[in-house]
Amino acid sequence: MMNRHVFRTGWKKGAMLALTLTFGMAVAGCGAATPSKDGAQATGTAGQAGAASSDQKLVVYSAGPDGLAKKLVAGYEAKSGVKVELFQGTTGKILARMEAEKTNPVADVVVLASLPSVQGLKKDGLTLPYPEAQNADKLNPDWSDKEGNYFSTSASALGIAYNTNLVKTPPTSWADLAKPEYKDQVNIPDPSLSGSALDFMTGYLSAKGDGGWTLFEQYKTNGVAMAGANQEALDPVITGAKSMVAAAVDYMTYKAKAKGEPIDIVYPKEGTVISPRPAAILKSTQHEQNAKAFIDYLLSDEAQKLVADASLLPGRTDVKADKRANLDEIPLLDTNWEWMGDNGADVTEKFTQIFK
Amino acid sequence: MGVLSVKQIRAWCLTLALIVLALLIVMPLLQIFIQSVYVDGTFQWMAPFRTLAESRFASVLFSSIWLGICVIAGTTVLALPLAWVMSNTRLARWRWLDVVLLIPFMTPPYIGSMGWILFMQKNGYLVQLLPELHVFMSSFFSFGGMVMIMSLHLFPFLYLLLRGALVRIGGSLEEAGAVMGGSFGYRFRRIILPLLLSSYGMGALLIFVKTIAEFGTPATFGRRIGYEVMTSEIHKYISSWPIDFGKATSLASVLLTACLLVWYMQSVINRKYTYRLVGGKGSRPSRLRVSSLATGLSIAFILLLLVASIGIPYFSIIAASTMKLRGIGLAWGNFTLDYYRELLSWGSESMEALLNSVFLSLGASTIAVLLGTWFALVVGQSRTVLQRTVDAFSLLPNTVPGIVMVVGLILWWNSPWMPIPLYNTYGMVILTYVILFVPYTVQYVKSAFTQVDTALFQAGQVFGGRPFYVFRRIVLPLILPGMLAGWMMTFTIASRELVGSLLILPPSVQTSATYIFAQFEQGQVSLGMAMAVISVGLTTLLLMVMEILNSQRKWK
């Protein structure tokens, strides 16, 4: 039970080793008693901690959706025979765990739901470039790194989700939500909890300039409520407590609609923002070959098909989704990702101040 | 000679306890403080103060404290009459109520608040059932509503402490007052209240820190009414880009300071108002007759309490868990048990999560009780500075927001130089639970132990009992109820622990709480609610079995 740990380079060095081994064995006595794949074995051969055994695994930290992440991992495991340890959580949870593990990283590959955060990882020098990834040239170039630090293998678009029982003629523009007829009926996700909502806000502001704030101020005046992360904002609309979500993540809406819930989504005519979902290899990886193979798999036809089946936008431009609107059917704002990445914190701060 | 050896044993125990506490609790927290003063790799001791001076934190801190005070008031109003009824009237025989009343406490706070929200919101279950009651809707979504939800969640905790104390006070003292002609009000004010004060102080303190360290309700209900507290601020810095542990820990240290101040106040009260109640003369329940009107009122009170604390939230939770389409709402034909079928199929992911929860919390609660009892005995009457230090250290996890404690634990156990490979194992999860919940046992055992008169131990020694014999035959039976309460509490909360589990579980491992959380995140609200029903149901069942076994043992 105790020996499922990852053996770490930190211990191998120096005179600490002897002490470490005795102390470690004494305390984790049960660890030595029950041999396992990587733990106890590694303890025995600490000097040359085996490349052979460690190469049979890969640690992936992935932001949802739950079902898709599991299918992708299963697909990769079947292809490569590598055992994947998957940690699932929101982008925030993953980042917090990575930060806590900073001195002793565990993850090999991260899949996040927010481009600015992976841009941040790149800026901090935490990512491992892999420019020769297979099919990388077919990815939408706006969403991925030219030097191969991260690859957006899927994306979602942001729209207005509405309850079809309560809203008969859906709004066509972002400005419509500030109309008196929708007073107190609209939710908007909290940008400090939802990376995609933040993408919408920064994207909208990067396209409209500072004048863009007028829209959000009008929202506030019209009683738009800031309501948790994406699903928390959507749920009251499904049950009819609210009528609409501004900046709703589209695949969640498609999923609820497919189930039969009274809900649908529109993309406003002046354009919206796409929220790419990047995958990156961490520089600290101890299973570099497996990590690279995993990225190759995420970009493969098979994996991209799984993405499309989960009602997400495929990252590759040559793969079409049949359960949802494709990229060419969604009007887009003229966004600037660099500005968005740089200004995320300020926008969150200002936005939450307005909506407090 | 015998006395000396007892002293020596005590000294050794005290030192050892300090070392263990330092390794388990203090060092991880220190790691966090170190993080908060190192900004970008350089040492800046001003950094935490800069954060605090930075902006609106004073008002957020005030919101937290005000909430804590109001919830103390709320839980007192609910728990005090209940404890009195359950120790002084014929209803005391309803022992099953003790287990039932743990249900609100077992319900994860964010699920309980969600139940209330689903019930009270626009187009919610209340309006679907009784449309004319929609007037309550808007007044519910307010600060008062939040205090009510949190009080209904936390009152069982105070109740258990108060009832324990009232039972120990026993009937004779109050009867003496009655014989002397004291009215009920007078007796309550001059006899019961002073005797209750130390237990109440402990309970109120813990309610206070539980409230201001609580994350679930502020995250669901508080956000909806725009009431910001410290934990939601801390959580923001710890879980959204860019992650800033420094800011989070600076805020956490403010929270910690506030809690320690309250703790100090409480220990002053405690030292002033502790009386030796268990003196070997035995105690028995009050024989004062309670009028049938009072009994009727008591029954009504209990029923109302059960409806508010269990009935309404669980109506929502069960309704949501059996709904085919949540967009349709309460309607025949919209009812399904598919979610339960999906959850309970053997070998499924959900089943695994459930089993993980059960075994992890069984392990954790057992270890926590042993450790906690040891700390509580070492602390004793907290006379020396060292004893008070052990006391303070062992209560730290309850005064630090869970999420901060957990980050500290990760920093400590996943350091490159840490020789014990515990991180990313089940052992780490158990350790985290033990650390988070050990204060409960400490409190319960201490509360039982401080009221035992030392004359009893002296009597044991006079009759030649060696320390171990005195411990086994005198101390242990007296603190056993406290240990049991601690075990039950720890098991209960550990099995629904969320914040720590989210960060600390090894990859590919889930517990029932993280499973529920994941379902909400994925839009599978019904599936999440079904899991909540099952996990709370299982815990309740287990506690009932224990209670029955326990009462049978008493009969023999």
From TrEMBL, chain A:
Keywords: Iron, Metal-binding, Signal
Organism: Paenibacillus kribbensis
Name of the protein in question: ABC transporter substrate-binding protein
UniProt key word Metal-binding: yes
Signal peptide: 1-28
Pfam families from the UniProt entry: SBP_bac_6
GO cellular component: outer membrane-bounded periplasmic space
Residues engaged in binding Fe cation: Y251
GO molecular function: metal ion binding; thiamine binding; thiamine pyrophosphate binding
One Gene Ontology biological process: thiamine transport
Automatic annotation (TrEMBL), chain B:
GO biological process entries: transmembrane transport
Keywords: Cell inner membrane, Cell membrane, Membrane, Transmembrane, Transmembrane helix, Transport
Span of domain ABC transmembrane type-1: 61-266, 354-546
Coiled coil location: none
Pfam families: BPD_transp_1
InterPro entries per UniProt: MetI-like, MetI-like_sf
Location(s) in or outside the cell: Cell inner membrane; Cell membrane
Record's keyword annotation contains Cell cycle: no
Family: Belongs to the binding-protein-dependent transport system permease family.
UniProt name for this protein: ABC transporter permease
